[in-house]
Amino acid sequence: MNRVVITGLGVVSPVGCSLPQYWKALVAGASGFGPPSFDAAGKVKTKIVAEVRDFVASNHFDARQISTLDRISQLALVASREAFGQSGLSMDEALSERTAVIIGTGVGGQMTTEDGLRRFYTEAAMRVHPMTIPRAMASGPPSQISMALGMTGPTFAVSSACASATHAIGQSFHMIRSGAATCALSGGTEACITPGILRGWEALRILTTDTCRPFSRDRTGMVLGEGAAIVVLEALDHALARGADILAEIAGFGMGADAGDLTSPDARGMARAMRMALADAALAPEAIDYINAHGTGTTMNDKLETAAVHVVFGSHAGELAVSSTKSMIGHALGASGALELIAAIMAIRDGVVPPTMNYLGPDPACDLDCVPNEARRRPVRAALSNSFAFGGLNAVLAVREFTG
């Protein structure tokens, strides 16, 4: 089987619209939180979200392009351009046919959908935007990326709620490892901070009233976020042959389902996915130095994820650095797994573990070293990136330093 390496990274996030900005902000513990940018006329109670506020579509696309792109595709295209540029790949016909584009999104083109519904029901408009369907469909982002970058290989979307990006990258990993593809652009994108979606999340009663503080005492819930993150995956032999700068190696992937409750997670399912990723990577638990946790900041999720880490790692759990970058960028749903994998890759690359911010003190049920409030310099040889979604859909990627 092929070994699979990462040669490009691209990010559009609430704390920075490029990889250097994103990583610098995470290490500094910067927050991307603020009030919603839209006026919901008092219909939305939420006071804190994580929007990509510095993104201006006209800086990246002309008016004709913008008319065909929902915000999820705009964010994904900009992140893809950065990742593709960093990778140094050059598409010819043969490589184009063997390059996959697999992108996760939990919600799809919600801004287009909500705008159409508002016009139809509130303004009694007889017509909606003629590109409503192509803009709103979940497969819009991978389609737009393939067209923009000239990739004719397997191209499709993955939608598994908060595990979408991790499932997408895992699928790309499997395809390259098996020889079904040579390269892939993969990750996730989400742009779902709209009045309708916020009202839906409010109904679940898991959004915070102040800020996101994963694994901390007095945590009150999650912050809804948005963004896009794309990684370039490549067969090792291909990367070496062209002299690529190899950033890290994808070592393993684990996934499964709780087959339990639609919204309540199960520590057994979380543990099973982590074990599968370790087994697939042929890594002992003791080889892992860092976990970028799912860490939503909700009472139950953080407690159960902590329990699952103890089950999988035993006595080594106390030696792990376990942090949640959602404490800075919020929960970007279908994009979150890719944003977090990139944080894990950069931790390996730079030997710095990003912090869990807003931490007030230990919760007895969350007794891991969650790197509170300040980044930590330490060698990271290998890491896990956890994604645990509604429906009990669990996905975990194992990534390690490339040593040849």
Task: Report what the structure shows.
There is one protein chain. With 404 residues, this protein is α/β, with parallel strands linked by helices. It has two domains: 4-241, Thiolase/Chalcone synthase (Peroxisomal Thiolase, Chain A, domain 1, 3-Layer(aba) Sandwich), CATH 3.40.47; 254-400, Peroxisomal Thiolase, Chain A, domain 1. The protein is 36% helix and 18% strand. It is built from 14 helices and twelve strands. The chain is globular and about 65 Å long. The two termini are 16 Å apart.
Number of strands: 12
Number of domains: 2
The biggest beta sheet is recorded as: 10 strands, mixed
Oligomeric state of this protein: single chain
Uncertain spans: none
CATH superfamily heading of the largest domain: Thiolase/Chalcone synthase
Explain briefly what this protein structure is:
With 404 residues, this protein is α/β, with parallel strands linked by helices. The chain contains 14 helices and twelve strands. The protein is globular and about 65 Å long.
